[in-house]
Each structure stands twice: as C-alpha cells, then as structure tokens.
C-alpha cells in the first residue's frame, strides 16, 4: 500500500508539471506573437463573400487551383469534378478527412488561424474538416467553402488518476438497433460550428492564385 500511494503522488506531480508547462509554453508563445488585435496573416482585411463568385474561366484551371489550396490545409477524401452533360454543368464537390488542429509546437501548419485558435488547439484536442462545393453560375462559378470545427469529448480527463478498472456510471448504455450495416464514425466529438477565419484565409489564397478582384456577392442558393 505505501508503494501504491507513492506512485499516485508521483503521477499527480508529473501531471501537474505537464499542465504547468503547457500554460507557460502558451504564455510564452502569446508574448512572442504580441497578442495584437487585427486580421491574422493570410486573412483579408475585408471579408470575402462565401460562396465566392469566380468569373467564367477554364473549369480545369479553377479546379486545379482549388484542389491545390485545399491540399495545403487538409487531406482530400473525395473529389468530384465539375462535369458537363450536353449543355448542363453539374456542380463539383470536395470532401476532406478530419485534421487535428495545429498547436504552437507546429508553426509550419496554418489551419489554426490567429493566437486564440492556436492556443485552444494547444490546450484542447480540436479537429477540422472541410467541404467545398463548386456551383456553376451564369457569370462563372460559386465556390461554397465550409470548414467545420469539433472538440474531442472524453469520458474523463486524459491524465486523470482515477482507476480505469473501476466501473463507471457517467456514460449511458449504447444500444444498436441495427447492428449489421454502417455505424456512426464520429462519436466522441462536439460540434463547435464553422471556422470563419480559416474559410476566409483559404478563399483569399484561392483568389490570389486566380488573380482577380471579387465581384458583388450573389444571392444565397
């Protein structure tokens, strides 16, 4: 028993050091960033419309530039190009795999835009995924970009010292009415809405690659 008590004390001490080191590291990074108020690098000073209207151009050029921008932030899961059947164009779509948010220890990654998002991703487990629709229009195309943000939902803190062999009562019993077939794959994540800053950063990068000035935002569809 004395040995077990000593191990628990050492575990609590290590966990306290880890939490203290995380807070100190985030504070140091924020101080280095200056905690300035204003647009983050890569985010336009004026909000771009989303969906973003793109003037009529070569569909292959627009698609390749869009895929290149998305690939800088996410790993693409599914890609369906804009297709033409007779005189009708069918919209294209890009879906990505979820990606865990960039922390202060990963300065080369750009998916956590601004000090707040990077600090949150350092202290919490945040992930993002993107969905892009390319809708044909009379003037060209509409780029509808949506980045969804989620927070990991754990049954207990990661470094909790409570015994894992103890029967727990804080989670309900899960019942599967149809055990055969597809099952949900995203359990354990809390939706946090859309990441507007990252959406704006990606749209600005696409606009810079295509080299045009945005036109007035069209009506929603």
Describe the structure.
The structure is a single chain. The protein has a domain of 147 residues. The strands form two sheets. Strands 1, 2, 5, 6, 7, 8 and 9 form a seven-stranded antiparallel sheet that branches. A two-stranded antiparallel sheet has the order 3-4. The chain contains four helices and nine strands; from the N terminus they run αβαβββββαβββα. The chain has 221 residues and is of the alpha+beta class.
Features:
two-stranded antiparallel ribbon; 221 residues; alpha+beta; 32% helix; disordered C terminus; 4 helices
Q: What is the strand and helix layout of this fold?
A:
Layout: H1 2-33, E1 52-55, H2 59-71, E2 76-80, E3 83-85, E4 88-90, E5 92-96, E6 99-100, H3 114-123, E7 126-136, E8 140-152, E9 189-194, H4 196-210
Antiparallel strand pairs: 1-8, 2-5, 3-4, 5-7, 6-7, 7-8, 8-9
Query: What gyration radius follows from the Cα positions, in whole Å?
Result: 23 Å
- Provide the low-confidence segments as ranges: 1-9, 31-39, 215-221
How many runs of DSSP E, i.e. beta strands? 9
What is the helix content?
25-40%
Number of DSSP helical runs: 4
Q: Summarize the biggest pleated sheet.
A: 7 strands, antiparallel
Order of helices and strands: HEHEEEEEHEEEH
Strand % is: 15-25%
How many angstroms separate the termini?
Answer: 67 Å
Question: What is the overall shape?
Answer: globular
Counting helices, strands and paired strands, the structural category is: alpha+beta
> What's the mean pLDDT score?
74
Task: Please give a quick description of this structure.
With 221 residues, this protein is α+β, with helices and mostly antiparallel strands.
């Amino acid at each position: 028993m004395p040995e077990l008590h000593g191990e628990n004390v050492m575990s609590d001490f290590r966990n306290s050091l880890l939490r203290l080191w995380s807070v100190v590291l985030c504070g140091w990074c924020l101080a280095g960033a200056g905690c300035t108020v204003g647009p983050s690098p890569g985010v336009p000073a004026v909000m771009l419309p989303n969906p973003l209207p793109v003037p009529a151009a070569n569909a292959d050029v627009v698609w390749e530039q869009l895929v290149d921008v998305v690939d800088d932030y996410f790993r693409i899961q599914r890609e369906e190009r804009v297709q033409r059947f007779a005189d009708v164009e069918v919209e294209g779509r890009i879906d990505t795999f979820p990606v865990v948010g960039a922390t202060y220890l990963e300065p080369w990654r750009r998916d956590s835009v601004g000090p707040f998002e990077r600090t949150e991703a350092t202290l919490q487990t945040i992930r993002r995924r993107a969905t892009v629709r390319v809708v044909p229009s009379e003037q060209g195309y509409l780029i509808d970009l949506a980045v969804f943000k989620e927070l990991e939902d754990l049954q207990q803190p990661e470094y909790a010292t409570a015994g894992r062999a103890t029967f727990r009562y804080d989670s309900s019993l899960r019942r599967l009415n149809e055990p055969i077939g597809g099952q949900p794959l995203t359990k354990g994540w809390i939706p946090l809405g859309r990441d507007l800053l990252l959406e704006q950063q990606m749209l600005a990068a696409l606009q810079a690659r295509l080299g045009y000035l945005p036109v007035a935002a069209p009506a929603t569809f």
